[in-house]
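ugh ok fine here u go
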Amino acid sequence: MKKLTKIKTSMDILQKNKWQLIIVIGLIINFNFMSCNSSKSNISQNDSTNEDGMVLFDFENETQTQLVKPQDATFEIISSGKSNHLQVNNGNTIRETGVKLMSPEGKPWDLSSYYQVKADVSNVGDEKMQVELFVGNDPDGLLRWYCSDYIDLKPGESKTITVNLAWTPWIFKPQIKINGLRGVPGQIKADLTKVTELTFCSRYNTEPNNFTIDNVRAVGKYEEKSPDGFLPFIDKYGQYKHQDWKNKIHSDKEIKEFAKAELAYLENGKGPKDRATFGGWLKGPKLKATGFFRTEKVADKWWMVDPEGYLFWTAGLNCVASNSVFTGVSQRENYFEYLPKKDDSSAQFYQEVDYATHGFYKDKRPYKTFNFYQNNLYKKYGDDWLKTFQDVAHKRIKDWGMNTVGFMSDIGVTKQKRTAYVGSIWIKNTPKIEGSEGFWGKFHDVFDPNFRIAVRNSVESQKEGANDPWCLGYFVDNELSWGQLGSLAVGTLKSPAIQPAKIEFINDLKNKYKSVSALNTVWKSSYKSWDQMLSSTETPNEKFAKSDLVNFYKRIAETYFRTINEELKSVAPNQNYLGCRFAWANNDVVLTAASHYLDIMSFNKYEYSIADFSLPKGVDKPVMIGEFQFGALDRGSLHVGIKAAKDQTERGEMFKSYIQGALRNPNIVGAHWFQYIDEPNTGRFDGENYNVGFVDITDNPHEDFIEKVKETTYSMYEYRKNNNLENKNSNQSLSKK
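structure:
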């Protein structure tokens, strides 16, 4: 039996969640062993159950180690007093370095009746790290991702990691199928009746590290509800029908009254008093004015400098665009209590769309969509709704203390030259490395001559903002999948013989090794000739080929950034090249290569804090955060997004903490929130339905959230000047994601 202290559940958490106290007491009383016989061996597997929980692993019986499968890691059972735990010693050569905890052969776990899987984890290394837990191995990558979460751990710190297995603490029984959205009330996230593995890994680590695992358990019983009457669940305004909240719209009269009140308020709104024409800091030092935005290091901190020479820190909002929040209605008409008829004036907000990267509509294109947000603007403002939307957006951004219109925003907004903005360029119609893979698709073949042509055409066709003083610069592409170190070179070798990148790679190898036999000696390979290597799509042993794989991987990165820099600067020499908005795993090779060609390095960082963000050794560049956000479920949204808050006020407190951490960081010159508007409750093109907005689907601002935003932004310049990063020697292992 484990001691209460071994559960590592703090009393303050228990006081906030009384039901958890019941669970923990139940676990303490009932943690007993049951033996499960495998067909191959007798393995003592903790599968104890009671009305509140089931113990999956507690490592008290060392035969459990037969069910631990390492991935680029080693492990050992550590005894501390009267109890044991598992210690994992990680490498850093694969995406999920760590261990899989397997169910006994022939006895998968049925977790479908449990709300959460919990585990106690500790960082026993010397550097900060993130521990991630995946429950199950669903072949649908999104469903597997839904059943996961991660936590930040400082050296010596212990926490409990929790993965919710359903979107709400209650479920429909029987389950009903709701398609095309990620967060669904009453729905279990995936098929959890036959779970065979739990994956614990060190998230995106760039150096070896160590953590422990203990008390892995399934807990929490659902309240069961009948699905009768749930459909339709979206009202005529695009709101969730089965809940009420502050400022929810119930009538056309209400939506007009809210609009009238806000317009009157904004007419008198002045915004922060210390802002110059372009949003720079009037009270700060005035530097050389070049007529365009640039960067400069002042008192050991990077800053942007606005066209008039004032210090500038870019606080922005992405997707300030009314057309960014359409939702599919095809094959889902029964979700909505109202959809306009063909002869209704609101029918103008229907559209046929042929774009869906993931989810329900991926193989159902084209599909019919409706834009509830635009329809609500039409109800608020009449036929001039778009013009009013654009005007109000500028006034709101100023009132909220922000100063930049961010990525993928309405050109009609940016053309007004009232708020600084960024340009958005997508490199389209490029040849791809056929053997590569990524969340948003295959990687560009930068060695194909048609790549430069595609870059030139893409820049030329999306050059809005070129040589405009109000344009900070351009994001080019978004969240490219650079993968593990050397992965794009591996993808190149998996490609067909006509792949230009593959021909280039093999020519590099010919120049280095001269003969294929010399290559075989180093790679421990058995190619019969260079031509046979070119035609082969098998991958080499990465351990022996690593040096060459990394070198070509580096060439891909350098060629990508150099080509775009050259083509962009030929069209917009006065704007900053802001990069590709790095996300997920990044490494020193890619970041160092990028730093030679980027004016500002951009990262999409969905974290609770980025105060200790740092670049690779030897790289000192300004950094812009391209995306971050926090979401809650107290205003009718069905999914919190990537980082969760309990309500709108806590969203604002998290915003404040995040921005102030960025302001303390000497490299960071701004951060842009994703996004201006909440995503539709029935999902955008890929099913995302997150509470990410400053405004909801009816265009009403989230007031409690924005109150905290303004507390932060109105004083951000003084805060940056007067505050420094507390720990200048902070760990870099979390900074390159």
